[in-house]
Design brief:
The chain is mainly alpha-helical. The chain has 3 domains: 2-81, no CATH class; 82-118, no CATH class; 127-171. It contains 9 helices and 2 strands. It has helices spanning 2-7, 55-64, 71-80, 84-91, 94-102, 120-127, 129-142, 144-149, 153-170; strands at residues 12-18, 46-49. α6 crosses α7 and α7 (129-142) runs antiparallel to α9. The longest helix has 18 residues, at 153-170. The chain is extended, with a radius of gyration of 21 Å. The chain starts with a helix and ends with a helix. Keywords: Acyltransferase, Transferase.
C-alpha cells in the first residue's frame, strides 16, 4: 500500500480479463483470518479492468500505466458488446450532444462508468419535470392491458408501483 500511495499507481492490474463477479479466482490476504472471503481479483492490490462502463476509459488507463489493453477485450467491447457509455450516447438527442460538447450540460451519465439507468434527478435537467411526469403517466398507462390480461403479473404490478412512486416524487 505504501508503494501504491507513493507512486499514485496500481501495483498491478489485469488488462486481459474484464471484471465480473466470477472473472477472477478468489484472492486472500490471510484466508484463515478473513471473515469476508476473497478480493476483487486473485491477488492483493491487483486491480481489475471494468470495460462494461466504457472501453475508452480502460484503454486510457492502460496507456497511462504503460500497458496495452488485450486486443481481444478491445474487439469484444467495440464490435460485439455495448458498453454503458455507448448505450447512453445512443439515446442522446442532437441537442443534448451539442449541449454536452459545449459544457452547457455537465454531470450526464456518460461521465460515470456505473449502471445503465439514468436517475430522474439527471433527467430533470435534460427534459424538465412536466415532460417526465407525462412520460411516467404514459409508462404507467401502457401497462394497463398487461395487468388486465395477467401478463407477467408480478413484474407488471411491481413496475406499475415503481412508476407510481417515481411520478409522485416528481410532483
Amino acid at each position: 500500500i505504501k508503494i501504491e500511495n507513493r507512486t499514485h499507481a496500481p501495483l498491478d492490474f489485469d488488462e486481459h480479463t474484464p471484471s465480473t463477479i466470477i472473472s477472477h479466482a478468489p484472492g486472500y490476504i490471510n484466508k484463515d483470518l478473513e471473515k469476508i472471503v476473497g478480493l476483487q481479483t486473485d491477488e492483493p492490490l491487483k486491480r481489475a479492468i471494468m470495460p462494461f462502463g466504457g472501453i475508452k476509459m480502460v484503454e486510457g488507463s492502460c496507456k497511462v500505466y504503460g500497458r496495452e489493453l488485450d486486443p481481444k477485450v478491445k474487439k469484444i467491447f467495440t464490435e460485439y458488446r455495448k458498453t454503458h457509455n455507448q448505450g447512453v450516447f445512443d439515446v442522446y438527442t442532437p441537442d443534448i450532444l451539442r449541449c454536452r460538447k459545449s459544457g452547457v450540460l455537465t454531470g450526464l451519465p456518460d461521465a460515470y462508468g456505473r449502471g445503465r439507468i439514468i436517475g430522474d434527478y439527471r433527467r430533470v435537467a435534460l427534459y424538465g419535470v412536466d415532460f417526465l411526469m407525462k412520460d411516467k403517466y404514459a409508462q404507467f398507462s401502457s401497462l394497463q392491458k398487461d395487468l388486465e390480461d395477467g401478463v407477467n403479473l408480478e413484474a407488471t404490478i411491481r413496475l406499475r408501483e415503481e412508476i407510481a412512486e417515481q411520478h409522485r416524487a416528481l410532483g
